[in-house]
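REQUEST FORM: STRUCTURE PREDICTION
Request ID: SP-0412
Submitted by: Lab K.M.
Chain count: 1
Length (residues): 268
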Amino acid sequence: MTVTSGPRPASTILLLRDSAGPDGKSEIEVFMMVRHYEIDFNSGALVFPGGSVDAGDRDIIGHPELYDGGEGLDTASLSFRIAAIRETFEESGILLARAQGSKSLIEAKHALEIEAAHRAALGEGKTTFLKVLADNGVRLALDRLMPYAHWITPEGMPKRFDTWFFLAAAPPAQAGAHDGKESTDSIWVSPREALAGGESGRFKLPFPTTRNLIKLGRHATLQAALDDACGKPVVTVMPVMTRLNGGRQLRIPREAGYDGEVFEVGAL
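STATUS: Completed
RESULT:
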């Protein structure tokens, strides 16, 4: 008998900044990374930083002095947001946090110091995110995360994830860099360029990543993207997969606000 398990909770952040396109007009750039080819999920793909929720993320919930923006959120919602910031720090070095007593995000120099001292150890499981936050006197800026999308891997797939996507303005002057382990490259890229790279074969784009890049690319500025997402209900997307003419067809809800309902696809 085949034993199936539920999807694993996971989070990702679309870190955004404003830039100028080739024609001089404003466009958004988003931080993305190329997954290591030996990783068993989305190997070699261009993705947003993120990963699974872990027990340490839930431990932080019991320490409200270590985060802002938790008011009115249940345990699951808090754990998704905490995991999003932790995973982004582990994978990119970018830290969405404030110094205790400050209303501003930490300066890039401070973030670099925390990264140099703790990022590798955190990724190797030699320390905890709770300890990193407490020892460095910082608190997570959960209030800077805008819920953007919620995708659940289709039933029948070997690995399934229940993933929340968040939008966030990138902290000033924090450029980010891949870790060389889970990811082998990192870039700031416009949705336009990323999608063109997916079409040309320069990039391997998973299906949800493509849909969210198309959705994001409708906006010319960071603020426009945030304003559009603010207050909008997030419709859960769990694609329904069927076999069709030797390929696969995915159906997603129209009300989720993407660029269609039915897609013929290769890999997810």
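NOTES: Residues 8-235 form a domain with the Nucleoside Triphosphate Pyrophosphohydrolase fold (CATH 3.90.79.10).
Reviewed by: T.R.
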